[in-house]
Amino acid sequence: MSTDTPGIDPLQALRAPRDPACDVFLTGPVFLDIVFTGLDSAPVRGTESWARGMGSSPGGVANMATALARLGLHTSLAAAFGDDHYGEYCWDALEQGEGIDLSMSHTVPGWHSPVTVSMAYEGERTMVSHGHEAPAPTGTPAPAFPNCPPRARAAIASLAPGRSEPWVAAAARNGALIFADVGWDETGRWDLDALPDLAHCEAFLPNAEEAMRYTRTNCPRAAAHALAERVPLAVVTLGAEGAYAVDGRTGAAAAVPAIEVEALDPTGAGDVFVAGFVTGTLADWPLADRLAFAGLTAALSVQEFGGSLSAPGWAEVAAWWQLIRTCESQAPAALERYAFLDDLLPTTARAWPLRRAVPTIGFRQ
To answer: What share of the chain has pLDDT > 70, as a percent?
Structure first.
């Protein structure tokens, strides 16, 4: 992460001595991502394609963990790391580079890191992955995970049909707000009752297609209202159209359009959106401000390549806000939507667009 990024703690005004040291806990597989960009088209069978750009970074759940940490949240990650050079690189990049707490993580002797090769072109991506499930930790100093997650303000889970993770209920009992997304239901049932951990969730954040299938509706907004009967906060992402959210406790709803940007690589944009929404929720912002901030951070991320590589920090947010206010073509109403940033951001003299250093395995400071 950029060493000159202004440090902002979005929860500073809310912190108290007895609060948990961890703001957000999450778990999942960490991949070594190798990302190729600058491809004019999809690779063609039997030919060799040269990319104009390449970068390596921790991926998988590391995308979300990095996005949270760069927004100033104290983030704890429980994951298995291979004892190969890839695993060493990912551990160092997350712990030393991003300040993520890895005390719940462990290195698995003889297990190689999962790897994803991602090719970005035409605003989309194609990925090839390889890996084996990590064996359960054995012996003493094995971490007490997953049944005993650390006390935290929030935790992020990925729901899957027919699967219940004991740590989710434990985290909720310890006071953590559970934020969850969901993947494609390969069973084709699309049954909310098959997501047992949904009962523990503060917020559920599916995309429009997932939300409509789970609620048997043909409108994303109707789906959000239906989901709000099951969870306190239902957030439906609408891709290029933005996002729509419903607060099931109050019935309040909010819609925020997407920010139009030239997308280089959408890898990790969904993770960045969730991180932005979690940040705003823990900071107790109004619902519309949370949606706007989540959409903004996701929009900033797709203008760079890679998942964790592209996650924006406060310097990127500040530089965007400084730039956008000087554009004569901006509608006053659109600027007003992001006026809440004035109270959060430091002044910055750095020019837009910002560029992070691209890590490459093997380079040393």
So the answer is: 87
For the chain, give the number of residues: 365
**Tokens 């947010």 — which residue?**
317
For residue 108, the cross-strand partners are 82
Q: Where are the alpha helices (DSSP H) in 216-362?
A: 220-227, 269-282, 287-301, 314-324, 332-337
- Residue 125 and residue 267 in contact, taking contact as beta carbons nearer than 8 Å: yes
Query: pLDDT tens digit string along 309-323?
Result: 789 999 889 988 988
Q: CA 129 to CA 58: how far, in whole Å?
A: 13
Segment 177-184 shows an average pLDDT of: 96
Angle in degrees, CA 12, 16, 22, rounded to 5? 75
| Phi/psi of residue 334, nearest 5 degrees | -65, -40
How many Å apart are CA 341 and CA 257, to the nearest integer? 17
- As a whole number, mean pLDDT of residues 258-272 equals 76
Q: With cut-offs at 50, 70 and 90, classify the pLDDT of residue 123.
A: low
How far is Cα of residue 1 from the mean position of the Cα atoms in its chain? Answer: 16
Find all residues with CB under 8 Å of 270, minimum gap 6, and list them: 181, 207, 237, 298
Phi, psi of 30 (to 5 degrees): -100, 125
Determine which of 159-168, 239-248, 262-271, 333-342 has the lowest per-residue pLDDT on average: 262-271
Helix, coil or strand: residue 276? helix
Please tell me the distance from the alpha carbon of residue 5 to that of residue 338, in angstroms, as a whole number.
20
